[in-house]
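Deliverable D5.2: sample structural annotation.
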Amino acid sequence: MMDRRDNPSAVVCVLCGEAFTLPDDEVDGNLPRVLLCGHIYCTSCLRSIQCDRVIRCPECEVESTLPEGGVYHLQEDSRIIGLIYTAKMNKMKSLQCDRSKNRRRNKLSSSDGNTENMEQPADPEKIERAVDEALAQAAENRAQLEHIHETLTTGLAEQVKRERARLEVEIKQAADKALHAIQKWRDVQLSQLTKLEAQFSTSQAEVCRVQERMKALEIAMQMAREVRRVPFLGQYCTLDKVLETLKAPVVNQSFNMKCITTGSGMRCVFQSEGYNQSLALSLKVEVSNPKHLSEFPPKGYQPGSSNRKSPWQHAEGSNSNCIPPSRNRLPTPQKQDKGSAGASSPLSRGSSPSPKPRRRSNHSCHSSGSDIGTPDVIIEELLDERQEHALPPTGPELANDKWRIQRIRRNQFSGNKRNVTQWVVVTHVVNPSHFYVRYVAEKRESESLSKKINHFCCRDSCHFTSSDTVETGAMIFVKWKEGLWCRASVVEVLQNGCVEAVKACKVTQLASIRVFFLDYGLTKSIIIQSEEGTTESSLKAVNNHLRKVCEAANVELGHFAPQAIRCSLKDLVPYDLTKGWSKEAQVEFCSVVGSAAVEMRPLGQDRDSLLVDLRKAPMDQSSDVPISVREFLVFIEVARFYSPVTLGRRPLLYYPPVHPKINTELNAVVSHINNPADFYIQLTDNMESLLLSAKLQDFYSATTVAGQDDLNIYCPVIGQACVARYDDKLWYRAQVIGHPGGRKVEVRYVDFGNKKILLVGDLRKIKDEFFALSSMAIHSCLSDVIPLDGETWSDACTNRFISLAHQKLVTIVATGRVPKTEPLPVKLFQSGPNGPLANIAELLVEEELACFKEGPKSKHASNDSAVWDPPLELSSAAEGVDTSEKKTFGEQDEEPLELQPQLKLPVQLKDLKVRVSHVNSPSSFYVQLTQCDSQLKRICELVKQECVLTEPQDVVWKADMHCAAHINGVWERGRICSDVTSGNVAEVIRCDHGNTVKLHVGDLRPLPSSLIGSLALECTLTDIRPAGGRSTWTATACDLISYYLTGASAVMTIKELTEERPVPITLFCSNKMGQFVSIADFLASEGLALRERKPRDAVIQKPKEIDEQSPGSETHTHSSDAEKNHPAPSLIPFPSQSPLVSTLIPPKPARRTIMSAEKVKTQLYQPPELPCLGHIQISVSAIGEDGLIYARTQNAACQLEQLRERIQQSMKTLPRQKPYTWKSVLGCAVIGPDMLWYRGQLLEVLGGHVQVQYVDYGLVENIPVVHVYPMLLCDDVPQLCMPCQVQGINPVGGRWQRDAVALLREVLLSRCVDMQVMELPTDPRQPLTVELFLDGLSLSRILCHHEHASMDRTVSAQEGQAVMAPVPFLDDWDIDTEGLRGPEEPMLGPFIYPNLPEEGEQFQVRVKHLWTPNELFLWPLEGTADVEVDGERLEEALTRVNANISSLPRLTNFPHGGPCLAEYSDGKFYRAKLMKFASVEPVTFLVQHVDFGSDDTLPVSKLRQLPAELLRFPSQSLKVRVSGFRAPSVSGQEDVLPYSPGWSVRAAMDMIELLHGSITASVVAREPELTVLLYGEYGELVHLPLVSSGLAELE
């Protein structure tokens, strides 16, 4: 800030008190560096307090992890460096003045001193002694000089020889670059011819005179006609003047007609002048006085000399003879002249230029066109000769600026690529932890490198000779394919006759060689085969595959860093650590990344690999969420994230809940109920639960909004404590109890008792402060009551118990002590205002829903139909059993049934009643026979008896071992899927259900051999296959069948019983109307499956009559709880079909024919119906890459539904696929990814794919030709989607950028918006010109606000009137706001700006901050100084606020432009406003100090809420644009402002010097932006010196 006084604390380290210093030529500087928390310390202090690459801030104790380069790679504070540099420049200027004065003073004093010495007499003895000593010293000096001379002479000869070879190559390169520079000069001059019209000012003035005369004459003629028609109008106008205008003759001599015969006075000539035996060539544009065309010299005329230049030549004169450094080598820093000190260093955002001095410098290459003695080409010196022959690295250091600075222009910031997202292409994959990528941005450089390598390989100097050798580690050229050579590094050399590899070998004895391609990351072995075995044949074989790198090629290519960078996916390990990375992982990785560009986000570095995350762009335009490669590999279970839980240790568990005292009445709330013997309660006298819930929401909601991922859980462990999100979007404490698969976990909420299956993304690590509190939910059961049948609680009893107690206040009395692992027996009483009311257990007994333990009901009185897991069909059958039958069944149960651990199918394989237990796909699902339910119940009881009292055993679990597994509180039979080698988690398949779960090894027990078996049957649906020509089922088909079948009852018919699994079956389920539907037919009707093709010549017999007991003949409706939870689809009932009995005859092979492509031709669909001009409501369906908006009217949206139904009804089967010629196909029919038909338009043929646009949606996709048919669907219906383009805006760069299209899709897709049709096209297929409004906001203004486009002023001027947004329709809502909380942070208004004087009136100003030479912040000094509010000035108010800054709360709301207090580098807080988010990790904001105009990037910890009284002070800086000048159209300066490349750094520095002193301003315009003119102390325009020096040009 130019007006802020230098504060000593801003340039002194607050820790050590030492001043910050800049690095000089020989002394390392002590630069200020910024920690992660935002505090600033010097380099020396940071080096002293670092420990294990971590620095703890002395002030706030926030830890900052150092980057790879240590303290020296921390970010430097550019603001303080700018202050130090400014002070240093001022000090140097003052020292220069002092030195000149001292020189004059020393000259006078030295002359006086010499006079005095001459007057003193000399001593002869002293003179002789002094001369002898001097002669002896001279002899020693002479000997040393001779030795030095000899060394320098020898070194000079070697230096000249070495430099001559290098400079010969560089001179050739410089000559080639000079030719390119001349061609570029020619293109620039030709492009400037578009401004040629400005040279003919005289002709333009004459044209304007004639136009004004014609306009005046037309007005006079119109007035005369009106007066002629209505005579009394003559008294309202000056009739004499009108008549005079009408009669005024046209004199040809009054117009200068000769102006059109003059030329521009400009010509392009070629000059050649000799000076000092050197030839200086220059192209020059001369400007002379305008002459007639007939006076121009002949075409071949060449003037001898001329020193005049055109404005174009002046704009490029400073650089016309200087060739810029090659982009393939390190640029050498230039020395700074006095007028442009520090111009080569980039400016920090929003502050004065703050250069960073360089240690090495080189002669400047600036020259002007008038300086004839300056050479045409400047030969640059190398900074470090040792880097010339060094092999560039191939690891992650390639992402640093050290090896890639030559690829960035010197006028840009050289940012670190490790923290920037890059687009890359994967070139070679070993495994997900070892692969190589290349930057897409370096494609042009890669092409240049390839051309250079091919050029060198064509030379004879790169051919191997018989004397050459090949060494390990050397760089050579290797033939990749015919005509393409690549550079590679030798990894291994094998010599003829040797078994083992050698370090070096002559090329004539080379047997094979293994090389590493530096630019692809691929290792390849090449075998050298010689036919004859002679030396010539060996050399020919070697040169056929290899080339050597000559010295010239080494110099040329030495500065090209290897293109391939080794990377590794961060935190990813193989799914099975014992087997390592599988081949499937490599294949899936290659398939997902493919050959397209992917987005790479560097996350760190591990040795020689760059730790990254790759993200692939989404396939469809409706979604802008990229696909993470890491998450994809984990999702398909070929990899997993590294688990933060230490292996071999059990996770920490919650403290068990505190049980109440026995026989003590306490108030509680029943939080969750499974049945009367399994429910959870919360004691109401524990107030810690309320406080815990509030803290949980505050902490984890804040981390979710901030985007912090350090609390994410990637690999949850069974039993792990965590925090989980529930359906109400709130966070609660939970514990992981199971892994159902599919990136999901099953958790139990420890404070409520309920269970839920969640995604892993809904889990967070629990903080210690939330872990210390014990569980709130107490597992309980009703004492003294049992179910009516003694075993299973009925649904009616459970529902009645829920209605009585769930989420209600009750009174509990604990009746006994039990271990913490068992439910607590309690009595529940309904609570009332006067105490406990009825006993809930007695109410259940009275309603005959339960019975007391000591009642008349026998414990074993149960019927046979009541099973452990009742099927759907038997629930109604059990209701008809009377008491006598129950007793009979009870007597039968006393005799144990024959145990059958293995499933035995009945003899009759038709119409078997089953229950679907688990579904993988239509080709693999498991069923349980309902007749085996009693066996399943008994097996579970036996397994429980064997395992419930045993302790976990140290068993080495191997694959296919049978075990007893404790799953969801029930002991079941299981089988180990894979070896458990490391960790405590085993993957177990449930033998009686079919699904796979992950369990802790502590929940496993050895299974007795007598219980080994399975009651689940794996089945597959017959007569269907996957749709779309796929070999596997789609995820949609699997999810749909899993949703409808899991847990449902069905009727199964086994088609063929064999020992192979799965068993082919047909399956029928009932729908809501009670009618049975074939699942195979249902999938086929949904388009997810196709019927299996029958043999062509098969003779099919007539199907038999359907049996009366088949499912199709049953009319009764089955109902159960499973149907309530999983509703069956509402389908059209299909008739049940029995298996078709057919006699198959082997088909005869048909004659092979070659089908020729069929020529077809289709027309386009009818163009869309265009709306009328005016406002309409539309819905946006797609956004094209070219920025076109595809929309539908409300009428078209209604027609679309009818059209879709009509198309699907008309297309029942697939047309026969034939080869077509697509050249004449325009309209077509497309099978979409959802297997539905759509109308399309063929845009382009791409080999086996075609590019198609959906005419009713606007989307464009590349589709295989097998899904496209050359036919029209409903061609009588016009296109329902019309393209639109926004009026009056121009995209940045002339085309819509990717981020602009992403913004359009985010705000418009699938949204109904207001549209005003501005112009209709002549061709109805062309886009409409429209203006869109989003809730009253203009879309064009939104795009301009986000800097994606700019307003087209020509269009705005032609419109004549502004486009008005439609009046929004406001509904009348009756909203009850009682009880709603107000905002935690008060909403403050904007800052106040003062009133400026009228336009044209001059007033004194003070410049606060300079952004560019014509954009700056200033403050008027007249009438605005010392503004007081309540007797207090702004400085006094800020001092008072800073004294109590700790009492102000931190900022919690971050609106754009919101006011706040921001901390500056001096430790004080100043008024500011929020501009935008600067970064997410860590969270930082870009703020603007409203009283100074400068910008700053700060963390949240340095922002405070602004007191409301500070808004009453007007802001003390105004952003203005200085009129009268602009950036030069062609600049010769190399160093430019990075945020405004049109301006050079020198122009900014000179403008800063011009703004010192007394400055006055006058307002030129207030709209669209505040524009002023600035004047100096003597009334001259400030910007004129910039124009005269060529750093700017007049507007």
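Annotation notes: The CA atoms of residues 1099 and 1143 lie 6 Å apart. The longest helix spans residues 124-192.
The annotation will be released with the project's public dataset once the embargo ends.
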